[in-house]
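Purpose: get a first structural picture of the assembly so the mutagenesis plan has something to point at.
Setup: two entries, given in the order below. No constraints added.
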Amino acid sequence: MKYKSVFDIIGPIMVGPSSSHTAGAARIGRVARKLFGRMPLRAEIVFYGSFAKTYQGHGSDVATVAGILDFDTSDLRLKNSLVIAEKAGMEVELSTSEVLTEHPNTARIKLSDDERQIEIVGVSIGGGKIEVLEVNGFSFQLGFDTPTLLVLHEDRFGMIAAVAKVLTQHNINVGLMEVSRHTRGSRALMAIETDSTISQEVLEEIRQIPHIFDVSLLALN
Amino acid sequence: MFRNVAELVELAESQGKKISEVMIEAEMEVSQRSRDAIMQDMYANLDVMEKAVRRGLTEDIRSHSGLTGGDAKKLQTYMETKTFLSGPTLLNAVSMSVAVNEVNAAMGTIVATPTAGACGIVPGTLFAVSDKLQPTREEMVNYLFTAGAIGYCIANNAFISGAAGGCQAEVGSATAMAAAAIVEMAGGTPEESAQAVAIALKNMLGLVCDPVAGLVEVPCVKRNAMGAAIATVAADMAMAGIKSVIPTDEVIEAMYRIGCAMPTTLKETAQGGLAATQTGRMIEAKVFGVRMEK
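Result (structure tokens, whole complex):
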């Protein structure tokens, strides 16, 4: 069941004109921003499929940038995001690609500053709902409807159990879990959807586990 | 949780509940949130819809491209000044649906129901039917839960976006959702709601998504208008006891199969249908200044 909530159908409240191309695009941008954790200096956006063909009329470009600015789908500033981004000192580079993707509404977003970089691939599946298929080269299928914990760690035994142990101690139930790695023994990324939100203290506790490089938590709603 | 319309109707009828109540309880279970919190979120959606309807009927809405706007007001003026044929509830539903979709095209604030391209039909029919039936605010919110329950079934068994399944998935879903909700508000049974879904969706099968210049304007606004009309008539037909020969879930499955078989040129790519007509291409060139050849 891709759509879990009635508010996936009746909602979101948004600035028009397209839930896939405007609201969905904004949400993909916002996931990238939340994963990056702060205002980036550079945003490189590549549109594929229907996004590439029709983004101008749907404002997918302004919507994606609005998301990167951490604006909600209903934020009226969405329309002026390009100007706002420029004033904030964010460089935006937009391009389209003819490469055939699995889903027609696909965007690749790379955010960077002098210290860090993040790259995601998101698809807009309709009605403002999105899925993230790639985070820094790791393959996933994440919706970010519920709090989702992303843990970047060394690919070695016991890591999943160590994280799960912390969650268990704090009575946090896991709804869904995906693990992805580049190659055996290299880096791996754990994505954990939880039923309840996770406090900063718990995040810090997970961060202290040996062989963990980075921990982030995000949810769209 | 229910997986399709048959299960939804079975749940409602076996427990003597309305579809909206089944949806509210399912939402409480899935989200682990209180009834009050869920109701509040839907009241917020209702408020946004009401504002959009009022804006579209009273303000001079014009989209950025200049292609759409003002038709909702035209219809209201026509209703006030001329002898009209179809009926006030029907024409109000059409006019209010156009109003919301015009606000959407002008990058105004709307609620995706289930999408932005089809955002006029559910609120348009809701406020038009409310003029006639005088429901409480809670009954109006229940209308949205019933519409949502049907949209939930369609989205999980087929699709709701034009890019995935053509306009039948987008305006078609909204029409089916509205038809079911009208039936419930008018006092019909859950089974009659399901019949209205089948009757409404059947008449949207095969509908391609061919937005001129790729914009959510032409033909989207007028398809919202006709979606509202079809939803209202389908609800009346169902409450008259008329049944769909093909069961509701099979109609949804048919919609899914048709959408899968549809070429990508007819799925929101602006490469076929009305978008590819001579005028469609001219408009595209005028709006974007390029891309005459495709």
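Chain A has two domains: 6-136, 148-218.
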